[in-house]
Amino acid sequence: MLEAFFDPMAIEAGCDEAGRGCLAGPVVAAAVILPKNFQHPILNDSKILTESQRDELVPIIKRNSISWAVASLSPKEIDRHNILNASFLAMHKAIGKLKVRPGHLLIDGNRFIPYLDIPFQCIIKGDSKYASIAAASVLAKTHRDAYMKKLDTKFPQYQWSSNKGYPTQAHRKGIEAHGPSKHHRMSFRLLPPPPQGILFEK
Fold first, then answer.
1. Where along the chain do its domains lie?
2. In the chain, count of helices (H) and strands (E)?
3. 82 partner at 20 to 30 Å CA-CA among 25, 89, 90, 162?
4. Given pLDDT bands bounded at 50, 70 and 90, which one contains residue 35?
5. Which pTM was predicted?
6. CATH code 3.30.420.10 for 12-146
């Protein structure tokens, strides 16, 4: 079972993001404040859950949380700020949308840009350690996956319904054949560099 809290005296919000490593689509962040006594047997890092498990958890998290919020930054904003800063800014937006102001933030990862004067704790692999971060990871991933499936109906050549914008072979073949779309991150290397030939001295 995941840890329920880091600071027993504070209203804590767990924060996580989805889509940092994608070639296309937004980066999405979520912030979740859970009751201190909240537990669920399958809640965990969204990456190790099945799609059906994540879908099952979404209404449970939303119904039981004290407050939750999801926010995103577009590919153009990612290109402007770089993906690391865009991830932090998406978290800031999500925290700012919470209906209850947290007194402490639990951040998945090892770095963060402070938000206002709220103290925070960075926790490596926090989405597999703390319930509120795991809940945020589930909301961020399911929100982003649903958005990429919707985009796929207009841009089927990239197969986003299956790869969600990550750099799969099928996605890159789509970029190679059709070029990038307006939803691609132009600051990213969309295609691998061509193989270097072997030079022989005469």
1. 12-146
2. 6, 5
3. 162
4. very high
5. 0.94
6. yes
